[in-house]
Amino acid sequence: MSSFFDSGPLPDWKDIQKWLGKDMPWDQLKKWDQEGDSDWLSQYVKEMMRKPRTEARVHSQSMLQMEAWKDAKHVNVTIRIAPGTDLRSLQLFATSDCLRVTGLPDHKKRAIRFPCLVYPRTGKAVMKKDQISIRFRRKPPEKSEHELFIRT
User: Fold this and answer.
1) Rounded to whole angstroms, how far apart are CA atoms 85 and 2?
2) Is 80 in a helix, a strand, or coil?
3) Cα–Cα distance, 151 to 77 (Å, whole number)
4) Is the pTM above the cut of 0.85?
5) In whole angstroms, what is the distance from residue 88 CA to residue 103 CA?
6) DSSP string, 59-78
7) Which strands sit side by side in the sheet containing 131-137, from one edge to the other?
8) What is each CA distance from 111 to 3, 48, 64, in whole angstroms?
9) What is the mean pLDDT of the chain?
10) pLDDT of residue 11
């Protein structure tokens, strides 16, 4: 089997730039070619990794945090509410597999999937400080078996 590099001349940087678009730091690549400096790549990666972490912190502080877990008979959901959220506009909607929260700042909505199926009408929500705790009864797993027929 022949290698890609044996198949002929390599494409020009301009062609590669057109194929990949603006996803690559082309100005940095030109500097690297000119100076032969390999440190630019580690600096670029460090900068790219630093941005999402700080943006994630700001995002998580501005929104609410939700967590769901199950025990033997119940599923519990904890919602930590960000300061400045209007509690009168918050609404909780439950189905057997998820909980949806509406009325958040900027008309946003959030949802969380339960770790197992629940009876949605058994949900009870309690507010304590900046946290809402909700408890649902778990649905037992269905263990009945059904035969499936294969059509020919």
Assistant:
1) 62
2) strand
3) 44
4) no
5) 8
6) HHHHS-EEEEEE-SSEEEEE
7) 65-70, 74-80, 131-137, 124-128
8) 49, 29, 11
9) 78
10) 63
